[in-house]
Amino acid sequence: MNWYSNYRNINFTIVNCYGMKILKLIPILMGSLLLFANTLIDPQLMYKSDPLILTETTLTDALGAFKVDDLPSVNPKCQTMLKDNATPLTKKMWKIALNDIEQNGVINSYGSYFAAGRRYTDRVYTRDIAFAGILGLNVIFPKEMLQSLKVTREVIALQGYKVSSNHVIKEIDAPWDIISNEEPQVMAKYKTNSITRRTDDVVWIWAVDNLFSVHPEIADWQWFYTNGKENFKTNYDPWFDKTDGLFRAQSAFQDLTSSGYPKGMTISDCVLLKGTSTNCIYYKAMLSLAIAAKKCNLPDESKYWNVRAESLKKAIRKELILPDGTLTYYKDRYGVVMKNQHNLGTAFAVLFGIVKGKEAKKAIDNYPTTDKGIPLIHPFLENNKGDHNNASWPFCDTYFLQAKELVDGKDYTGYNAALLARTMGTKLSVKRESEWGGFGSFHEKVELPGGLISGSGQQLWTSAAFINVCLRAKLVDLKK
How many CA atoms lie within 13 Å of 167's alpha carbon, on the beta-carbon side? Predict the structure, then answer.
């Protein structure tokens, strides 16, 4: 397989993978559906709201500034480029995004797949691959994305419930098999973590559904449905709680016992809770499998998945919407509902139509947006600090702003682009390791409230987020 082959001849069809009614004006790609802009002018991806200013050639924020000529000049192998009306800075960041993505191409005994970022070498992270695919890699790198997603399923099938000793969850009836007392040994053997550390694994189903929607010419519906159905039976349904109709699962991408949870929470506490974001993804996955079953001429099974999805939607609405109309971060293992929110949980509930209209507006309106990014958790957890709490993650910002566009009927691509441009490195955190990459690539996260750029450079899902913004702004030349 030519890992960096150019896929620009795309036969788009208008699909609504979030399951929502949408205004039909000018089609633009947004995440896993085609939405429609309410403007007749292609956005230029510029923004001005002091101190965050994005012009044709400069980015300025509260911590620093850079000019287009300050950024490195790179030559990605992918030749999909932007239209002539894109600004010089946008064009240069587009090439950097493509190059960052290409630098994450891995070839080893598993085959070819995307890694998560410069910091993460050849680890197989389903969530990173899937979220990046939905944001835009599915459009630009479809064959590489399909191969990457297939690798994740091969690894999952090979590993099963083989875990380190402290990752056995006795409340879950599953064929646990302790192979080590140390989690790093599990990572060394499989290039991924124990299943307990990735209870958001189901996101791959949404990613494949999106991929096949924008590139039906590569769709393998039988493979998709067979693997999706088996994964539910083996890996997901054991975590389902019939008492409230929700799945026990960490909040999407929030690492266990990290700063994303109150201090003192155990591994079991973190995976026996019911994360709103991950339950929303389960809902989307069920709808995706209903489509796949129909494509495989299995109407009864398609109906089964639609019925399950509707039941889960009702459970989410009953159990995870707070009295003020916002979405809780999670419901803990003891049934206590957090008053905090998670920007991905809010975004997914809106994008998937779990809340609509006035309900969606109420859910998203009070969530803060800042010149440094959108808080991952609002308000921040009071008894813990760190990058999974007091931070903005640009890929999360991008999902959130898509939801906000849907609710408000406004274009936030300029603001979104400015936040992503900041991650080039207006001011890098001293906490970063030097080998994680420096100025001039898309970085992983932003410390809040200070706004220092942190984490890995050449981060896959941050680069994909910039692809997403350019697609939403109709700046990508997909016709050549």
Answer: 27
Angle between helices 221-231 and 203-214 (to 10 degrees): 170
Residue 389, domain extent: 26-159+199-472
What CATH number does residue 336 fall under?
Answer: 1.50.10.10
The phi-psi region of residue 174 (left if phi > 0; otherwise alpha if psi is between -120 and 50; otherwise beta) is beta
Domain count, the chain: 1
* Token pair listed for 225: 């449905």
Asked whether residue 91 is domain-assigned, the answer is: yes
Instruction: Retrieve residue 164's tokens.
Output: 């380190």
CA distances, 96 to each of 32, 68, 398, 399, 439 (Å): 23, 12, 18, 21, 11
**What stretch of H or E contains 177?**
strand 177-180
Cβ pair 456, 436 in contact under 8 A: yes
In a domain, 280, yes or no: yes
Q: Is 17 inside any structural domain?
A: no
**pLDDT single digits (tens) 169-219:** 999 999 999 999 999 999 999 999 999 999 999 999 999 999 999 999 999
DSSP 384-446: --STTTSEE-HHHHHHHHHHHHHHH----HHHHHHHHHHTTTSSB-TTS-GGG--TTS--SEE
| 248 is a domain residue | yes
Chain Cα centroid distance, residue 412: 18
pTM score of the predicted model: 0.92
Length of the chain: 480
